[in-house]
Design a protein that fits this description.
By secondary structure, the chain is mostly beta strands. Helix content is 1%, strand content 41%. The strands form four sheets. Strands 11, 13, 14, 16, 21, 22, 23 and 25 form an eight-stranded antiparallel β-sheet that branches. The protein has a seven-stranded antiparallel β-sheet with strand order 12-15-24-17-18-19-20, with no helix packed on it. It has a five-stranded antiparallel β-sheet with strand order 1-2-3-8-5, with no helix packed on it. The longest helix is centred in the C-terminal third of the chain and has 4 residues.
């Protein structure tokens, strides 16, 4: 596979230390609210965990507003409906977390992009009353009118274990027929009949996933991709569901560009079992001997499977889990093991990946239909 045509700029995964800003009203009177804004940021993006604590006036629903001082842009969120117009942001409660008793708290989170200074907001207001003001009379519980703008949030919690992940996407924020935002859809070098689409009929969580209709033959491959940075330790996790058992021929459903050798690191199948493949020299993990294949596993059909990997570029190591169970044939541990990684370690290997692509590529005539959901990449294991 050649370089994915739509690869984005590399994303730095090193997160800064968590900080918190708490805004409260005057000590002489009960404040209308207080907000803890816990920021986790990296070079081009950030996540924020936001906890709102109500004052003495109960509310049946809530709206929190604030302004960003820089170029922050919210791209997704969870446990609230968030809209942004310019630097004005509005977060509204959902049906399951709207009731906010006096002194009660509610939490939600968001993810966004930013460059330069990423200062915490300082002008939070709950239901139209500044968190620096004293509480209004009990009857004043009507939420503020939402700021207009595109909805960029999900209706439920984020994918499992995503709190510290630099990439965390369950596709609930996708409103079009083709994945957008951080994702680029396409195929390298030649276009065929393979397709990538947002699907609302099958999902691992929420109500949306990405469906890849993969056809046989090289030109029919189709992927969605986004940039990552993986010169150090990189963990990945996604859920995948497919319809046709892995074939005897070589296929790929995951590809990452390795900038060290200018080719792809690929995961997929061969001889009806999962395998990794290094495009630069066509090394396989495990070796495609009967003893090697026996140390891998098939990818179940008609059900969601959790696929995880750990890539350590400096050490030249790779680990793989399916359904939280490590697959012994998909491990590169630095010590050559016959039928597993002896071929893989025939040369020095220190990968530095620049993107993550999910989809389908067949090097023969094998077709499959796949769904992907709850994709996450981070510097520590995310889990299923």
């Amino acid at each position: 596979m050649h370089r994915f045509a739509g690869a984005l700029a590399a994303l730095c995964l090193a997160a800064a230390a968590t900080t918190a800003v708490v805004l409260a009203g005057p000590a002489a009177a009960a404040p209308a609210c207080s907000v803890a804004y816990r920021l986790n940021q990296w070079q081009t993006g950030f996540t924020a965990d936001i906890t709102v604590t109500n004052g003495p006036t109960a509310a049946s629903s809530w709206t929190l507003t604030w302004h960003y001082a820089g170029n922050q842009s919210v791209t997704s969120a969870w446990n609230a409906t968030v809209r942004q117009t310019g630097n004005a942001v509005t977060a509204q409660s959902l049906s399951h977390n709207g009731a906010l008793p006096a002194g009660g708290s509610v939490s939600f989170g968001l993810q966004g992009t930013a460059s330069g200074t990423n200062a915490e907001p300082t002008d939070f207001a709950l239901n139209g009353v500044s968190c620096g003001d004293t509480a209004p009379p009990t009857s004043s519980t009507t939420p503020a009118t939402p700021t207009s703008g595109p909805t960029t949030t999900t209706s439920g919690p984020p994918p499992a274990g995503c709190a510290g992940a630099a990439l965390c996407d369950d596709f609930e924020q996708q409103t079009g027929g083709t994945p957008g935002g951080r994702w680029t859809v396409g195929a390298a070098n030649c276009q065929g009949t393979g397709t990538v689409a947002v699907d609302t009929t099958v999902a691992h969580s929420g109500s949306r996933s990405v469906k890849v209709t993969g056809q046989g033959g090289y030109c029919n491959h189709a992927f969605l991709g986004t940039s990552v940075s993986g010169s150090g330790v990189l963990y990945g996790r996604f859920w995948v569901r497919h319809t046709t058992a892995l074939p005897a021929g070589h296929v790929t459903f995951l590809a990452m560009r390795d900038s060290t050798d200018g080719r792809d690191l690929r995961a997929g199948g061969q001889n009806r079992a999962l395998q990794w493949n290094r495009e630069s020299d066509d090394a396989t993990l495990p070796a495609q001997s009967p003893a090697g294949v026996a140390q891998s596993v098939p990818l179940p059909t008609g059900t969601w499977s959790c696929f995880e990997f750990r890539l350590d570029g400096a050490a030249g190591q790779l680990r793989t889990w399916l359904g939280s169970a490590e697959v012994p044939g998909l491990v590169v541990d630095g010590v050559p093991t016959p039928d597993v990684d002896q071929q893989w370690l025939a040369r020095a290997w220190h990968p530095s990946v620049t993107d993550l692509r999910l989809g389908w590529e067949s090097y023969a005539g094998d077709a499959d239909t796949l769904w992907f959901d709850d994709v996450a990449v981070g510097s520590s294991r995310i889990g299923c």
